[in-house]
Amino acid sequence: MTLVGFMQASNVTVYSGSWRYPSAAPDYLDLRYYQRIARVLEEGTFDLMFFDDRLAMPSIYGNSPGEAVRYGARPIKLDLTAVLGAAAAATSHLGLGATYSTTYYPPFHVARAFATLDHLSGGRAAWNVVTSVNDSEARNYGIGEHLGHDERYDRAEEFIEVVGKLWDSWEDGAILGERETGIFADPGKVHELDHRGRYFSVQGPLTVPRPPQGRPPIIQAGQSGRGRKFAARWADLIFTADPDREIALEHYREQKELVAAEGRDTEKVRLLPMAYTIVGETETIAKEKEAVFLDQLVHPMASLTLLSEVMNHDFSGHSLDDLVTDELINSVTGMRGLVQGVKRHVGDQPLTLRTLAGHRATLLQGPRFVGTGAQVADQMQDWFESRSCDGFVIAATHLPGAFEDFVRLAVPELRKRGIFRDAYTGKTLRENLGLARPASCFSAG
Fold this sequence. Notes:
Keywords: Flavoprotein, FMN, Monooxygenase, Oxidoreductase
Low-confidence stretches: none
GO molecular function, one term: oxidoreductase activity, acting on paired donors, with incorporation or reduction of molecular oxygen
CATH superfamily of the largest domain: Luciferase-like domain
Family: Belongs to the NtaA/SnaA/DszA monooxygenase family.
Strand content: 5-15%
Number of strands: 13
Number of domains: 2
Number of helices: 16
InterPro entries: Diverse_substr_monoxygenases (IPR051260), Luciferase-like_dom (IPR011251), Luciferase-like_sf (IPR036661), NTA_MOA (IPR016215)
Shape: globular
Mean pLDDT: 93
Strand order of the largest sheet: 1-2-3-4-9-10-11-13
Structural class: alpha/beta
CATH class of the largest domain: Alpha Beta
Distance between the termini: 35 Å
Order of helices and strands: EHEHHEHEHHEEEEEHEHEHHHHHEHEHH
CATH architecture of the largest domain: Alpha-Beta Barrel
Pfam family, one: Bac_luciferase
């Protein structure tokens, strides 16, 4: 079972009410906050600490960031380079993943950032490739016109090819370090790309030698048809948002078929649904905590603000109690899929914006495993052994307590059943994921 700790470099977790929980740590602007959490995840032998990212405050609602700031709806996003560097310094084995957009960064920048992290962490970097286009982010980066959905993926295809070549541009063994002769490196093993493509022109070589992993693992979470094909071609870890096991079973089968069609080993590409875990010393304690998270901590306006952000549509002209009509669904790109997903939770009944928005901001986004450590392990084992997934992206209800409870109470149960590691066996993230180190495209023949 692969386990990933889902993080935000922020005042909140992916659960937008987390900052209000009484024991939530308030020092999220201090590097020691992220180091503490990283050490907890490493104690639990998680594969990866992964950071989601956005490049703007939520400001689609009312064309203003005011409500996001007022209710703490993810207004803070620290730069991940510094955060991951701090986590790397505090750990020895834990993988370190981050989101970098193919829309707002150039390939050279992304290649250098992750190659540097991979070296400084001893081979533990991973890159989450996103093509996200959001009006708030676009305004921060001076982008007026967005590419269409499929063209964004066309651009991402070329982007990731260029990044891979940049990582390969120094062959293994290029650095000689011959002090006596004064020869530092073999120029025959350091390659210019001279890439001239539809979207990018990149000379190269990269200013960082080849990463310890060769190429850091790729994460992807595309849910559209094109997104799933992109993930099948490139991703080592595919994050999903399947609300129940039956849907996850179907998604798992379909995605593995796409991976096979790309000529890749389906056992080496892992599908990982996001899941909340609420673990208590007793079932009663766990369910009491669940009730607090479901009912008390997320302000409805924070939910609506985040719905506006994820849909890239301003809902400020609507009331929370307005019905989600066919007219509204047809007017908002991508809303039909969200509505269908929510109806899998609540049944085929009239939806209000309050219910739809709550789905995005509360614990309704994915499966929720609640109970004692043994009960949570039972639920996870059921998903895993039914081939609904290859592991989980564990989303925290609050930090650091949610991960501390999971590591203390659930991880020993998973280990006892033989479905999760007792210790790290590799030095790099690739090794711990059972992935071979790829050959350089310049030296493979």
